[in-house]
Amino acid sequence: MNGRTDASRLLLTFLAAGITAGTAACAAPAGTPTAGAPPTVRLTAPSPAPTTTATATGIETTIAAPASPSTSPASSLTAEDPDATVEQLAVAWLVAYRTASFTGAADAWIDRTASYVTDQLAQQNLQLRRDGRGPGMAWQDFVDRRCTARVDDAAAVIPPEAPRTDTTVHVQAAGTLHTTCATGTDPADEALAVTLTAVRTDGGWRIASRDY
């Protein structure tokens, strides 16, 4: 047969057979071929296997495998659907931003998110580091209790009502922050929700700002 053309002809033949043939098909046990009925035609595309991208700081983010090999975490976000690419980017940013370990630094998120943001935002984040703002009491307690935090069930969506252009998209990302500590009682899970602005750059989509 010739692909979709033959499948369409078989479907027309089946419809022309009338109610009698349809009744016979319904009466047949599940899995039993029915004489005169056309074969089921399924048009499917193979799903790429998920890949795990590791950043320089050891944070791993599982995303759909790209159509072509990539060389950096950000370049792996190359889905053919622009919306899917932006949503994957937002998830990757959220995971990199909120994942933490007592063995790292309070501002380690600056390095973890660097490959997901625009050059301008990366420079703004580095300026925060240069300003020398202390980690605060909350981080010191996090370290003293030897805690680690991970983001579970991360997902993102582009609201259909959000304003957008060909080069700018507003995306919402959410997840659950789960923290475990070696001493004391583990903190309650924290619901995460952010609104981000993503822009198309020469290097692909990048996060330009956190709006909320």
Automatic annotation (TrEMBL):
Keywords: Signal. Residues 1-27 form the signal peptide. It comes from the Bacteria. This is Nuclear transport factor 2 family protein.
